[in-house]
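Chapter summary example.
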Amino acid sequence: MTEKKVLIIESSETFSDYIVEMLKRVGFKTVVTPDGDEGIEAARKENFNLILLSVELPKENGYIICKKLKEDNDLKKVPLILMSSEAKKGDFEQHKKLKVRADDYLKKPFVKRELISSISNIIGCEVPVEIYCMLEEKVEALIKEKDILEKDSKNKEKLIFELRERLNKASGSSNVDVEKLQKELIETRREMEEAKKENMQLTQKNEAFSEKIDEINKEKKELIKSSIADFADRDKRESELKKRIAYLEKELQDQKHQIKKALESAISSIKG
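The structure predicted for these 272 residues follows.
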């Protein structure tokens, strides 16, 4: 089966990496561009099954790029999902009323299930959504367990240090049970080694499918705010202007016709 290709138009490298890793796990090939112009150029060079388009882009915002894509005869049939961190629900609802609307809308930051479900509903997915989400839940559980083990290991290292200090202080005192402290030290070391082994096993299991799992941080705020109301208004004004021009052109043709008839009548009178 041919590998499906997704074009990601996203200015945040951190967020695009997050999406790429997510889509790679469910069998999609991806191409990333940081702005709309490069995205349109890429879409014209290669056949994509889907476009993920961010509203917040450094040059022209995603709404304008969406309009360009949906008005292009060669690209308008490619399904498109708009993503935005700033848009409100009302903004998306208003954009859905336009002729250049997207096929779906996602508010960033979205959970993995939202994106995969949206894509699956539009173009299908090699990996069933439920299986993907189950694997993701296992990954997250392993990461949490790993963090707990690492924290536990650090606590045991601290305890060993404290026991050593107590042993050193007790070396010349008959009131402290040195033998008991030594046993505690040995037991603590054993527990720490077991924790390290468990941590290593957990890390090996985790590496296979969570190499690049990372929290979305440092997402750059290179956002161009766009008022969808203004965008819709511009679209309405453009439509009205076209109607006005058509009306004036018709009126001009009528006047030309009347002038032609008057001239023909005058010429006929002169000849007569």
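To summarize the output: Confidence is low (pLDDT under 50) at residues 212-230.
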